[in-house]
Amino acid sequence: GTFRIVFNDLAGGDNYLSNPISIIITNTNRTVQSILGNFQVVSADGRTSVIDLLYKDNLPARGVDFLNAVIAFYYRTKLANIDKSVQSARDFINSRKNDMMRNLKAVDSAVESIKLTVDVIDPGQQTTTIVTEKKNTQKELDELYTKSKALINLRNLLLNSDYEIIVPLGMVDEILKGV
Fold first, then answer.
1. Rounded distance, CA 167 to CA 174, Å?
2. At a CB cut-off of 8 Å and minimum separation 6, what does 6 contact?
């Protein structure tokens, strides 16, 4: 290939052109070795994970650009590793969850099979039935108690009152017949 050198007025005008210009072109491996020779990673203090990145270059702006590129690559790699770690943890959890679900289903089917062969009664279902029957019986007892109180009050009113009281005839209730 060819190179083109463009001169500008900021370079020093005619003085600049009168001096010799030297251009050095090196292969990629030698350039990389030179960069790595000027680049150092040093532990700030042996107790923490803080590090110092040092790069020597004759152009400070290029040195800053190089260090910014190193830091950007570091963050990109770190994020990729975090994503891999998170995905690995997610896969592990999902695998264990699926194993547990399979084991639970196997245990449930084994329990059902044992219940069918041994004629085991489900205590939870039996308890629900007993509690429901108790509530219904309690409700009936409460209604009978309320009716009994009403009849006692009616009897006392009939026996101790000077007023006429109308009582429906043809009642089948044994308690009222006794009044």
1. 14
2. none
- 164 confidence band (pLDDT: 50, 70, 90): low
Handedness of CA 69, 70, 73, 79 (dihedral sign): negative
pLDDT for 53-95, tens place per residue?
Answer: 899 988 889 889 999 999 999 999 988 888 888 888 999 999 9
Dist. CA 179–CA 176, nearest whole Å? 5
Within 8 A by CB and 6+ apart from 173, the residues are 151
- Alpha carbon distance 37, 162 (integer Å): 124
Q: Which helix (H) or strand (E) holds 17?
A: helix 14-18
Q: What's the angle, vertex CA 153, arms to CA 151 and CA 157, rounded to 5?
A: 115
* 125/131 Cα distance (integer angstroms): 10
Q: Rounded distance, CA 56 to CA 60, Å? A: 8
Specify whether the CB–CB gap between 53 and 72 falls below 8 A.
no
- Provide the β-strand partners of residue 53: 41
DSSP calls for 106-132: HHHHHHHHHHHHHT---HHHHHHHHHH
Residues in the chain: 179
Q: State how far the Cα of 30 lies from the Cα of 26, in Å rounded to an integer.
A: 6
The DSSP output letter for 162 is S
Report d(CA 81, CA 91) in Å as an integer: 15
